[in-house]
User: Fold this.
Amino acid sequence: MITLSVSHETWPVRGAFTISRGSRTEADIVVVELIDGEHRGRGECVPYARYGETPESVMAQIKGLEEALAADLDSDKLQDVLGPGAARNALDCAFWDLDAKCAGKRMWNLAMLPAPKPLTSAYTLSLDTPEKMQAAARENASRPLLKLKLAGPDDLQRVEAVRSGAPEAAIIVDANEGWTSEIYTDLAPKLAALGVRMIEQPLPAKDDAALGEIARPVPVCADESCHDRASLAALKGRYDMINIKLDKTGGLTEALALKSEAERLGFGVMVGCMLSTSLAMAPALLVAQGAQIVDLDGPLLLAKDREPPMRFEGSLIHPADAALWG
Assistant:
């Protein structure tokens, strides 16, 4: 019989993390433990207000399955019981971790996946003035890939400042739905000239049909517009890539299926994360194997991480030890 433990944690951010929708100084995280005798499986999720989630609502969803978990609920049945979102993510990843620990094997062996390799992650620079983003770029100029949070006004100056501060780094940008079609049309060719390699979610998800009618001189990646496989049909002709986040897909199970289907349909794949600890990065790193862009820097943006943490060497992230997950 599986028993459930669910808790709400807050983790301090290193400084502040700012995007077009606001600024945060701590990460709100929900952690699930599934306990089967001496074995414990863990999963972490980040409730996201953009999708109508709060820690309280997500915990209520999870606790509502306590009787089902004590009976016969498993990872396969979970996909039908809960929809995509943070609650299913924490439970799904906890199931994978529990199964691996009960079997005494690594999760990728159970899933018949290749053993994961270390991958280079983007490093995110928060939205700020061009001058402060240039200073942050200088501090991180040795990192191979920088991701810039943008918002509209002064964005060209922000990118120019970062390019000056880190002339050798590759750059991708994320507007978090903060642009209009007019801003995008004006900025995209200028960002291409600055060597920007990808633009993430420039328009609000409700307005992104316009991307099908506008030139895309830089590959455009769907984030808020892409959750699970059901999202893909509407993205053809509008986006060149999708950003897979386990908190949007509702766990590792759907994330792997989404990646496979997206590649079949010709989309490029980025694998990203919410502001979260190494417990959330561990399953995401498995999805990120072979992805064109990896953005799993969540722990680097926090003031502290779990023990044992994922091991970072600069921007190189190593697979998790079994003691952490999987």
Notes: The mean pLDDT is 96.
